[in-house]
Amino acid sequence: MAPPPSMPAASDRAGPGRDAGDSSSLRLRRAPSADAGDLAGDSSVGLRENGEPQPPTNPPPQEQQQQHEMLYYRASAPAHRRVKESPLSSDAIFRQSHAGLLNLCIVVLIAVNSRLIIENLMKYGLLIRAGFWFSARSLGDWPLLMCCLTLPVFPLVALMAEKLITRKLIGEHVVILLHIIITTSAIVYPVVVTLKCDSAVLSGFVLMFLASIMWMKLVSYAHTNYDIRVLSKSTEKGAAYGNYVDPENMKDPTFKSLVYFMLAPTLCYQPTYPQTTCIRKGWVTQQLIKCVVFTGLMGFIIEQYINPIVKNSKHPLKGNFLNAIERVLKLSVPTLYVWLCMFYCFFHLWLNIVAELLCFGDREFYKDWWNAKTVEEVRCLLKLSSFLLK
């Protein structure tokens, strides 16, 4: 006698060549997806009282999930279903997430550096001196202050040279010679003033830092304007550059464009820059607080770690060679921390603050240089290649 329509035959569920008694055990050994299909198949067949086909009745999703768990965690369910590699094997290690190991390394790094900080404080005490950074002598460094205030004269002279060549009052060779004199004077003048005056470390560093930035900006300013003149002459002669030449970046230099370029966080001059629409004052305040904190941390590392090691070190040619190597290796860790703090404060915090205040749009001041394999890649990822190419 055939089974009723709502109860499929055991041989149909078990497959050909198997009896009804084996079907339940086989179903328990299947994967959850296969079990779901069997359960759905058992409830999808039936007829109404009037003889019409009955629509499939699937159990609720919560009930299906409970059935899957009951079948999947049975003792007879297979635990090994496919070929798999160990997570740390050479074939699978790069396909795994190492966030846990990274967190462990951070914890170990914090623990080790905390021990070194406590050990240093117990040995030397608090060594931070305000006189190393700021002193009465710094306020009396009026020659350096006057030199810093007179640095904007060089960009103004460069603008005058560009105006003269635009009006065709001087030749191309004359303006090139003027730019060479201007850029050379912009870097030599602060060096002479710094050497002549016995100033504090911070005053001399700030002056030379600003002078170096201005020198690089003046070099880019001269090169870009020269190239604009060459492109303009080529365009007038009928040369076609297609979409490579932007009319907005072919304008003559103006006082407004020069001032914006000297203040903008970039070393590459162009007449116009992409800009944002507003200034986020709250965001600027947060970045300023971070900049102050990391600058203080950098000063703490220099005063508390680097200075004592340098003072207690002998001359490398007069002492033991192994002792010199030990001192260099001891300096490597705090020097690395100072370098990282300096990078974060300047390239990320300070440049973003200036860009936000000036609505400067292109804020990709650096790329992932920490993934670089060579020094050349580091230079490119720090966005120095753009200036060198110009």
UniProtKB/TrEMBL annotation:
The keyword Transmembrane helix applies. It comes from the Eukaryota. Its EC number is 2.3.1.20. It is an enzyme of class 2 (transferase). It is found in: Endoplasmic reticulum membrane. Pathway: Lipid metabolism. Residues 1-67 are annotated as: Disordered. InterPro entries: Oat_ACAT_DAG_ARE. The chain crosses the membrane at residues 99-118, 142-161, 173-193, 199-219, 288-306, 336-360. One of its GO terms (cellular component) is endoplasmic reticulum membrane. Keywords: Acyltransferase, Endoplasmic reticulum, Membrane, Transferase, Transmembrane, Transmembrane helix. Residues 53-62 have a biased composition (Pro residues). GO terms for molecular function: diacylglycerol O-acyltransferase activity. Its main location: endoplasmic reticulum. It is a multi-pass membrane protein. PANTHER family: DIACYLGLYCEROL O-ACYLTRANSFERASE 1, STEROL O-ACYLTRANSFERASE. This is diacylglycerol O-acyltransferase. The lineage of its organism: Eukaryota, Viridiplantae, Streptophyta, Embryophyta, Tracheophyta.
